[in-house]
Write a structure and sequence with these properties.
Elements lengths: L1 E9 L2 E9 L5 H10 L3 E9 L5 E12 L3 E3 L1 H10 L3 H19 L9 E5 L2 H4 L4 H12 L6 E5 L3 H4 L1 H12 L4 E7 L16 E4 L1 H6 L4 H16 L3 E4 L5 H9 L4 E2 L8 E2 H12 L14
The protein binds ligand C2E and magnesium ion (3 copies).
One magnesium ion (MG) binds next to strand 4.
């Protein structure tokens, strides 16, 4: 916010008054231009099922700043929120995600994947969120069932009833919902009864602690059981080691995401990764009978 000193003439007198106008400064101003300057990019990280097959991807926003280099979303999303740029940025993300899904639909392997997109609370609560999302899907001719929206617990704090109604309406078109960073928010567990969710994403802090001590192990196991008992698909985030993966598989976790299976990468590299993973393992060359 810039403060501008303005001098006005009023009733013949001269008064100096301060008026405040909202104008994004610094990073926020650059952020607004970044969308138009083509500095935003979506990266894709694989999500695997309990057989090890790639089941889907999460789209993660990257900002290639011409001077600063790559700015992580943790530093610019809060700025975008503050500056009221989330509708612009989030709209770009959904458009780009649907464009990607349309490209994938022409490929026999990629067309089987779902794409999960992070949606911030303020973005989800915009009056025209639903209509503009349906329009984006229509323009790119993408089936809504290919898209999953990731919400965090913060979206339920303001207006639970309106949020649930909007989720139900979007779900009736085939869009699915994941609750991101589960267990790190401050809301009570009682909301899980009412939420029309498909998937719980267990935050990576629980995964990290799962092998550190008995309580860490008990906690993540209980969270997974809770998710299973409530009928959700349970996905664990931030898996970095085979030991973590083995433990979580043992707990009954359905899906996995983390550096162990692939870091977030640009679309081309992601497609190459998926094609490679889909290739049948090279067959052992049959031994030829010794010829006489
Ligand atoms: P998130 O949705 O929970 O995404 C997972 C984050 O964990 C990503 O960070 C990902 O790169 C990172 N990650 C994945 N596997 C591992 C692992 O094995 N180890 C570790 N240490 N980290 C791992 P990233 O890409 O920096 O994004 C951070 C957060 O920014 C996201 O957390 C999400 O809340 C937000 N974000 C990213 N893209 C968007 C977007 O398009 N819209 C909105 N509203 N938020 C976004
Ligand atoms: Mg999924
Ligand atoms: Mg996410
Ligand atoms: Mg998360």
């Amino acid at each position: 916010i810039n403060t501008i000193l303005a001098t006005v003439m009023l009733c013949g007198g001269v008064y100096a008054i301060q008026i405040e106008i909202t104008r994004p400064k610094g990073l926020a101003l650059e952020l607004r231009n970044a969308v138009g300057n083509d500095e935003m990019e979506l990266y894709f990280q694989p999500q695997i099922d309990d057989t090890g097959a790639i089941h889907g991807a999460e789209a993660l926003l990257r900002w290639e700043h011409p001077q600063r280099g790559q700015v992580p979303p943790g530093s610019f999303i809060p700025v975008a929120e503050e500056a009221g740029l989330m509708p612009l940025l989030g709209g770009w993300v959904l458009d780009e995600a649907c464009r990607t899904l349309a490209q994938w639909s022409e490929d026999p392997v990629l067309s089987r994947l779902t794409l999960a997109v992070n949606v911030s609370a303020s973005q989800f609560q915009m009056a025209d969120f639903e209509s503009s999302l349906m329009e984006t899907l229509r323009i790119h001719q993408v089936a809504p069932s290919r898209l999953q929206l990731e919400l965090t617990e913060s979206v339920f704090i303001d207006d639970m009833a309106a949020t649930v109604a909007r989720m139900e309406s979007l779900r009736s078109t085939g869009i699915s919902f994941a609750l991101d960073d589960f267990g790190t928010g401050y809301s009570s567990l009682s909301y899980l009864r009412r939420l029309p969710l498909d998937q719980l994403k267990i935050d990576r802090s629980f995964v990290q602690e799962s092998l550190e001590n008995d309580r860490g192990a008990a906690l993540v196991n209980s969270i997974i059981q809770l998710g299973i008992d409530l009928g959700f698909v349970v996905l664990a985030e931030g898996i970095e080691s085979p030991e973590q993966h083995a433990f979580l598989l043992d707990c009954g976790c359905h899906e996995f995401q983390g550096y162990l299976f692939g870091r977030p990468v640009p679309a081309d590299a992601f497609a190459a990764h998926v094609w490679q993973a889909a290739e049948p393992a090279p067959m052992a060359r049959p031994k030829r009978a010794a010829q006489g």
